[in-house]
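Appendix C reproduces, verbatim, an entry submitted by the partner laboratory led by Prof. M.T., so that reviewers can inspect both the input and the predicted structure.
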Amino acid sequence: MDRLATPLHCLDSHGLDYDTLILVDEADREIGYLGKTECHQGAGVLHRAFSILIFNGRGELLIQQRAAGKRLWPLYWSNTCCSHPRRDETMSQATHRRLKEELDLACPLRFLFKFRYQAQFDTDGAENEICSVYIGRSEGPVHPARGEIRAWRWISAADLQAALASDTEKFTPWFRLEWERIMRDHSHEIAPLTATSAFGE
């Protein structure tokens, strides 16, 4: 059974983003700036990024299908939100900004870990990032940006695990990597997100 065959909502649109990204070294130290398009050409230029995973009180994760107009991994399923901090922008400012822009959501976020990865999409484009991963909880309505998201849904950890096992190629490489690490090393930090108590940064 295809657990992603019937998404909750679908959108059709195309969008582009021309931010200047922050180049970093292997220790995530800022070393310069470069346009988003140039950062993702060829094998990619190492830059700073973030991924956000938002859960609800039932323990479900909000995942999205990337818009058809995305240069890299269009129509692949991925985590709730991912992007890059802009020049002279803190990670906190960037994560909250992008969560609002993409999904019209606002909630406290907690840093989990950062990791380095490089993933080649085709001969002309790749991701090459040091990515910081954040988690949060929200029960608010979701209003995705049409230029960014094709479809979205809430999914349980069990159903996500089954979907990843049955058809891993439907998911972005960074999401597969971070979800594996979350399940291996940080599952105890996800559990409090389902509690009724407040969740703070």
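Residues 141 and 196 are 18 Å apart (CA to CA). Additional entries are available on request from the coordinating office.
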